[in-house]
Every structure is written in structure tokens, then in C-alpha cells.
Amino acid sequence: MALVREQRAVTHDLAGHLINQFATLPACTRLAELTVSEDNPIRVFVTHNFKETVDYLRVFEFLESVDRFFYLNTSKPENVPESGSLEAIKDELILQIKECEAVIVLASLYSDDPELVSYQMDVAEANEKPIIAIRPFGGILETPQDLVDRVKEHLDWNEREIADAIRRQARLEDTARWDVVDFP
Asked: Is the domain defined by 35-171 classed in CATH 3.90.1200.10?
């Protein structure tokens, strides 16, 4: 009987130690805070030039089609600074990027405005935000190599791949999935 009490005391002490260790972990590594849910969506920033381009809207169309994937869009192309100065534009982009957990770079936008997209990537890197690039839609154009060299993942337009990359980069979630193929 005494041995059982001693084992329970050791187990209780170990559990208390583990709970204390968990409490001292940084917030970004706590499992409860890593799990994507409707109450805890992943905050995503998509590069933009203060216009809602076709590819910009396509990203959200793809993300909406993924079951049980919850996200919050922190990019706000409609928030064009009133002064229109370069400094005001940069400040607005910094505010939008700081709120996110992952940055999605549209390769098509990078081809159109490399300076603005490079600046957004610089801000993401300075704030330690993972960067994911999506190839130009249609597969005709290639992603510039200098863009590919700066990103964590380089993807095709596939809703599942995009959602999984966001989960991996933003929340460090294991997204191993199995495809089920039915043969007639």
C-alpha cells in the first residue's frame, strides 16, 4: 500500500513538473494554440499592390474550398493610405504583415511589381514570418529564381497544397495525408 502511495506521489510530482514546463514554453509552441480551429484561425497575408487582382482573389477562393481550414485574411488592399506617399504605403504594409502568421507571395505580382513585393518579403523576413510562393497561374510563366530562393515553399495552384503549406509554415502542423483512390 505504501509503495502505491509513493508511486502516486512520484507520478503527481512528475505531472506537476510537466505542467510547469508547459507553462514556461513560448506561446507559439503550445499545442492548444497551434491547433487550427474556427476559434483559432491562421492569420494569412497575401502580397498585393493595393488592388484586388485576379490571383489575389483566387487564393481566397482556393482556401475557401478546403474543408476544416480556418484562416483570417490580414492583407487589406482596400486600405490605401490617404497621403499616398511611399512612406505611408510602407507603414500600412508593415502593419498588415505584422498581424499574420504566414505570407503568401504571388509570383505573378512579383513579375509585375518586384520592388513592392520584395519590400513585403523583407518585412516578412524581418518579422520572422514564413514565406510561401505560388507559381503564376496557368503554368505558362516560370517563377523568378530570386523569388524561389527566398521562400520556404514554392507551390502550384492546388487548394490542398496551399492550405497544407500554410499549416506547416504558420503552425508547424504535420499535414501528412493519404489520398484514397477508388477503382471501379
From this structure: no
Neighbour count for residue 40 (Cβ, 10 Å) = 14
Counting DSSP H helices and E strands in the chain, the numbers are 8, 5
| pLDDT at residue number 10 | 47
The per-residue pLDDT for 157 is: 92
pTM of the predicted model, to two decimals?
0.75
Cβ pair 120, 49 in contact under 8 A: no
Residues 46/181, Cβ–Cβ less than 8 Å: no
CA-closest candidate to residue 77, choices 55, 54, 49, 97: 49
Alpha helices in 25-113 (DSSP H): 31-34, 54-64, 86-98, 107-112
- Cell digits for 96? 498588415
Closest CA relative to residue 129, chosen from 13, 47, 35 = 47
Sequence letter at residue 9: A
Q: What is the rounded distance in angstroms from the CA atom of residue 59 to the CA atom of residue 64? A: 9
Residue of higher predicted confidence among 37 and 41: 41
Q: Supply angle C-alpha 113, 115, 118, rounded to 5.
A: 105
